[in-house]
Amino acid sequence: MAKAEKKISSAFIYFFGSFGGILFGYDIGVMTGALPFLQADWHLENAASLVGWITSAVMFGAIFGGALAGQLSDKFGRRKMILMSAIVFVVFSVLSGVSPDMGEASAYYLIIVRMLLGLAVGAASALVPAYMSEMAPAKARGRLSGLNQTMIVSGMLLSYVVDFLLKDLPGEWAWRLMLGLAAVPALILFLGVLRLPEHHENHRGQILWFGNGLRFYHRRNILLLGG
Fold first, then answer.
1. Does residue 31 lie within any of the structural domains?
2. pLDDT digits over 96-116, tens only?
3. What DSSP string runs through 72-104?
4. Any idea what the Cα angle at residue 107 is, between residues 105 and 113, rounded to 5°?
């Protein structure tokens, strides 16, 4: 396992470690272009409250996703939780894109789906900075924190580009593809994170018991506890 991890370059680790920011940024920005087509397709021009809930549902779900992700990642690990977040993102992005046309009930369906999608968005926003801080050497943490922010705004820019490229499609296809294509970067994240280590080799410690004493090895430092 250690040999496999050593073959992975630091650039690969940092790129995919921060790639979750793309998902966060994409879903923030994509509704800007999708909403006018969605309103026209489902005749929601005079349903301001429903439109407001559709727009804000992701952020509402993100509140709970961010709160839960930290606790769960302490138990299961950052990498595993990022993988789970990517899977949730793929599933509910696709479900957003294939929302059934059932009149007003469609809006409630999409609100629920996007709230669940928000769990993954919130989880990614919490897990990515934590993972990056653990993976980065102390001298590079400032630069790599900036990389996460760069990924977020890049995701927003990507969503605007996708919205622009799809704007000439028939209304129903336009908004569905805008929302559904969010699954693509999530799938890329999943495949990339599969190769990432749970911890950086240089940041991993070992805890060993020797009789009634505890020794904690971290890099070259040894901490002895007990008698």
1. yes
2. 999 988 877 899 999 999 999
3. HHHHH-HHHHHHHHHHHHHHHHHHHHT----TH
4. 105
Tens digit of each residue's pLDDT (9 = 90 or more) over 164-216: 999 999 878 999 999 999 999 999 999 988 888 775 544 444 333 334 444 44
**Position 66 in a domain:** yes
Residue 226: inside a domain: no
- Whether residue 224 has pLDDT greater than 50: no
Tell me the CATH number at 153: 1.20.1250.20
Q: What is the sign of the dihedral through the CA atoms of 101, 104, 109 and 110?
A: positive
C-beta of residue 30 within 8 angstroms of C-beta of residue 158: no
Residues 212, 227: contact at Cβ < 8 Å? yes
Whether 37 and 166 have beta carbons less than 8 Å apart is answered as no
Specify the pTM.
0.78
How many structural domains comprise the chain? 1
Range of 42's domain? 10-199
